[in-house]
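Journal club side-thread
Mid-discussion, someone asked how the predicted structure for our own chain would compare to the paper's figures. Pasting it here so we can look after the session.
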Amino acid sequence: MKSLPINNLPMKNSTCHGSTGCSACPSLASRPEDGPLSTVDLAQAAALLGAHPETVRMKAKAGMLPGCKVGKRWKFSIVALQRYLAGEWVPRVVQGDQQEEVKKCRSINERPVQTGNTSCTPLAAERRYREALAQVTKSKRRNSTTG
Protein backbone atom coordinates (compact mmCIF):
# COMPACT_ATOMS: atom_id res chain seq x y z
CA MET A 1 0.00 0.00 0.00
CA LYS A 2 1.40 3.40 -0.99
CA SER A 3 1.48 6.17 1.62
CA LEU A 4 -0.14 9.45 0.67
CA PRO A 5 0.83 12.93 1.83
CA ILE A 6 -1.50 14.59 4.31
CA ASN A 7 -2.93 17.75 2.82
CA ASN A 8 -0.01 18.38 0.46
CA LEU A 9 2.62 17.83 3.19
CA PRO A 10 5.16 15.15 2.20
CA MET A 11 5.63 12.14 4.47
CA LYS A 12 8.98 10.41 4.89
CA ASN A 13 7.70 7.50 7.00
CA SER A 14 6.40 5.00 4.42
CA THR A 15 4.76 2.73 7.03
CA CYS A 16 2.49 5.51 8.24
CA HIS A 17 -0.75 6.00 6.37
CA GLY A 18 -1.24 9.53 7.71
CA SER A 19 -4.25 9.12 9.95
CA THR A 20 -4.00 11.40 12.97
CA GLY A 21 -6.16 9.07 15.04
CA CYS A 22 -4.22 5.88 14.34
CA SER A 23 -2.43 4.50 17.41
CA ALA A 24 0.12 2.60 15.28
CA CYS A 25 1.33 5.78 13.56
CA PRO A 26 3.50 8.33 15.33
CA SER A 27 1.75 11.60 15.92
CA LEU A 28 2.40 14.28 13.34
CA ALA A 29 3.89 16.57 15.97
CA SER A 30 6.48 14.01 17.05
CA ARG A 31 7.85 13.19 13.59
CA PRO A 32 11.54 14.12 13.37
CA GLU A 33 11.24 15.85 9.98
CA ASP A 34 8.63 18.29 11.33
CA GLY A 35 10.57 19.28 14.42
CA PRO A 36 9.21 21.44 17.21
CA LEU A 37 9.10 24.66 15.16
CA SER A 38 8.01 23.51 11.71
CA THR A 39 5.96 26.20 10.03
CA VAL A 40 4.00 26.68 6.85
CA ASP A 41 3.11 29.77 4.90
CA LEU A 42 -0.37 31.11 4.18
CA ALA A 43 -1.05 28.99 1.09
CA GLN A 44 0.08 25.77 2.81
CA ALA A 45 -1.97 26.59 5.92
CA ALA A 46 -5.02 27.19 3.73
CA ALA A 47 -4.45 23.83 2.04
CA LEU A 48 -4.06 22.12 5.42
CA LEU A 49 -7.28 23.68 6.72
CA GLY A 50 -9.16 23.29 3.45
CA ALA A 51 -10.03 26.99 3.28
CA HIS A 52 -9.32 29.92 1.01
CA PRO A 53 -6.04 31.74 1.78
CA GLU A 54 -7.84 35.07 2.25
CA THR A 55 -10.17 33.48 4.83
CA VAL A 56 -7.18 32.04 6.69
CA ARG A 57 -5.42 35.43 6.59
CA MET A 58 -8.45 37.30 7.95
CA LYS A 59 -9.01 34.76 10.74
CA ALA A 60 -5.33 34.86 11.71
CA LYS A 61 -5.36 38.66 11.72
CA ALA A 62 -8.43 38.65 13.98
CA GLY A 63 -6.74 36.16 16.34
CA MET A 64 -9.18 33.36 15.55
CA LEU A 65 -6.44 31.15 14.07
CA PRO A 66 -2.96 30.43 15.47
CA GLY A 67 -0.45 32.29 13.35
CA CYS A 68 1.82 35.30 13.28
CA LYS A 69 3.05 37.74 10.71
CA VAL A 70 6.81 37.71 10.21
CA GLY A 71 7.76 40.69 8.10
CA LYS A 72 5.23 40.77 5.30
CA ARG A 73 4.31 37.08 5.39
CA TRP A 74 2.11 34.96 7.62
CA LYS A 75 3.62 31.90 9.31
CA PHE A 76 1.65 29.10 10.92
CA SER A 77 2.82 26.27 13.16
CA ILE A 78 1.69 22.89 11.87
CA VAL A 79 1.18 21.63 15.41
CA ALA A 80 -0.94 24.66 16.33
CA LEU A 81 -3.06 24.25 13.20
CA GLN A 82 -3.60 20.57 14.01
CA ARG A 83 -4.67 21.53 17.53
CA TYR A 84 -7.02 24.10 16.01
CA LEU A 85 -8.57 21.42 13.80
CA ALA A 86 -8.93 19.11 16.79
CA GLY A 87 -10.70 21.85 18.74
CA GLU A 88 -7.95 22.11 21.36
CA TRP A 89 -6.77 25.63 20.47
CA VAL A 90 -8.02 28.60 22.48
CA PRO A 91 -7.85 32.06 20.85
CA ARG A 92 -5.31 34.41 22.37
CA VAL A 93 -6.38 37.23 24.63
CA VAL A 94 -4.78 40.56 23.84
CA GLN A 95 -3.39 42.25 26.92
CA GLY A 96 -5.43 45.43 26.42
CA ASP A 97 -8.74 43.58 26.00
CA GLN A 98 -10.99 43.57 29.02
CA GLN A 99 -14.43 42.22 29.58
CA GLU A 100 -16.98 44.96 29.14
CA GLU A 101 -18.72 46.05 32.29
CA VAL A 102 -22.46 45.76 32.49
CA LYS A 103 -23.73 49.31 32.76
CA LYS A 104 -26.92 50.14 34.57
CA CYS A 105 -29.81 51.39 32.49
CA ARG A 106 -30.24 55.09 32.79
CA SER A 107 -33.68 56.23 33.77
CA ILE A 108 -35.59 58.01 31.04
CA ASN A 109 -37.22 60.18 33.69
CA GLU A 110 -33.97 61.88 34.60
CA ARG A 111 -33.06 65.08 32.84
CA PRO A 112 -29.87 64.74 30.83
CA VAL A 113 -26.85 66.50 32.18
CA GLN A 114 -26.16 69.68 30.24
CA THR A 115 -22.82 69.81 28.53
CA GLY A 116 -21.18 72.82 27.02
CA ASN A 117 -22.15 76.45 27.41
CA THR A 118 -25.75 76.93 26.45
CA SER A 119 -28.06 79.70 27.47
CA CYS A 120 -31.27 78.28 26.04
CA THR A 121 -33.55 75.45 27.03
CA PRO A 122 -33.57 72.20 25.07
CA LEU A 123 -36.89 73.15 23.44
CA ALA A 124 -35.57 76.51 22.32
CA ALA A 125 -32.41 74.88 21.01
CA GLU A 126 -34.49 72.39 19.01
CA ARG A 127 -36.63 75.23 17.58
CA ARG A 128 -33.52 77.15 16.52
CA TYR A 129 -32.10 74.02 14.96
CA ARG A 130 -35.25 73.40 12.91
CA GLU A 131 -35.33 77.03 11.80
CA ALA A 132 -31.73 76.79 10.64
CA LEU A 133 -32.50 73.66 8.62
CA ALA A 134 -35.74 74.97 7.10
CA GLN A 135 -35.75 75.68 3.39
CA VAL A 136 -35.33 79.27 2.44
CA THR A 137 -38.00 80.21 -0.12
CA LYS A 138 -38.36 83.50 -1.86
CA SER A 139 -41.75 85.17 -2.01
CA LYS A 140 -43.42 84.95 -5.39
CA ARG A 141 -43.84 88.04 -7.50
CA ARG A 142 -47.38 89.25 -7.59
CA ASN A 143 -47.89 91.70 -10.42
CA SER A 144 -45.33 91.24 -13.05
CA THR A 145 -45.78 92.10 -16.66
CA THR A 146 -43.93 90.69 -19.53
CA GLY A 147 -43.63 92.86 -22.27
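Post-session note: Residues 32-86 form a domain with the Arc Repressor Mutant, subunit A fold (CATH 1.10.10).
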